[in-house]
Amino acid sequence: MQERSVPAARRTPSPQRAPPAARPAPQRAQPRPRSGTLLELAGLALAGGALLGMAAAGSRQHRQAQRPARPARRAAQGAALVAASVLADSAMEHFRGNFRNRAMLTAPAASSAAVAAAVATAASTAAPAARRAAFAFAIAAGLIGIGFHVRNLLGRPGGLSWNSLFYRAPFGAPGALAIAGALGLTADGWPRTAAMPGGDAERLAGITTLGLLGVSVEVGLLHFRGAFHNPLMYLPLAGLPTTGLAVAAAAARPGAGTLAAARAMLGVTTALAVAGSGLHAYGVSRNSGGFANWSQNLFQGPPIAAPPSLAGLALAGFAALDLIEGRRGHEGQEYEGRGREDRHG
After folding, report:
1. Which of 107, 154, 253, 316 is deepest in the core (most CB within 10 A)?
2. 3-class SS shares of the chain: helix, strand, coil, % to 5
3. pTM of the full predicted structure?
4. Helix, strand, or coil here: 197?
5. Distance separating alpha carbons of residues 144 and 107, to the nearest angstrom
6. For 109, how many CA atoms within 13 A lie in the half-sphere containing its CB?
7. Of 30-39, 270-279, 294-303, which gets the smallest average pLDDT?
8. CA separation (Å) from 32 to 29, 87, 88, 201?
9. CA distance 244 to 225
């Protein structure tokens, strides 16, 4: 009797050996975030400020004799505000990144040194070598940081895109550190008299204009990411470039009208700094948990430390205008003196 063949569809499949379990990829060790790192950075800033303060200390008469002129004090105060804003922002953002690259410690260290040096510059003209070294360190760290951030931006899958610009390392933050160092170097070493050497006013006005235009790009990008959900988010985009152009115009063609317009716009920029800090704090409070959940919401944003840098740039702009007006007054006095000599001669 012939056996019937079983159809292929009804055959019982032979048991197959299970594939070996996939070996997990080795995890790269990540440094654990430590809140003590922020305290260490704050301690470095305080130590640097104490050392520079002791170097500039002396008798009261000595401090009065070496007190900088008003434009130098304003420019140094502006540099301190910009550097302090960079310090707070870089410390938080790099802490959020777990300081994965040890070079990320450079930005908080350089901005801490710049803050201390700027405060010392606003107080006295003594010990200029240490201050200039701190400002030069800030400029170098800022320029190198721009390269790191651009590489981080382009290294994202897909290369340069809106998503990369929105969520990768901001290219404008290291630029602010370089601006703070440049402001400090420009302010350092000025004499006490109102008639400053030629070129300082134009240099300071150029740095201020460059800073305002750069901040405008960064603010526009981040407010665009936020879909301009509050109409007040348009104000910095209108005010900051206008202020920068007004300062540049006052430096290029100094006159009563251009100087008055530049001073008015710098006042508007200062108001934007104050209002922006309050609005950003309100935005943080609206996140889930508010300030009670500060350890998450401060990182979520909006950044409270960013708007004060506008006040620093405004102070630098006021210093540039003070230099221009002082030079115009000095030239007017010399012109009148020559006229009197010609009449009497």
Report:
1. 316
2. 75, 0, 25
3. 0.76
4. coil
5. 10
6. 12
7. 30-39
8. 9, 21, 20, 47
9. 24
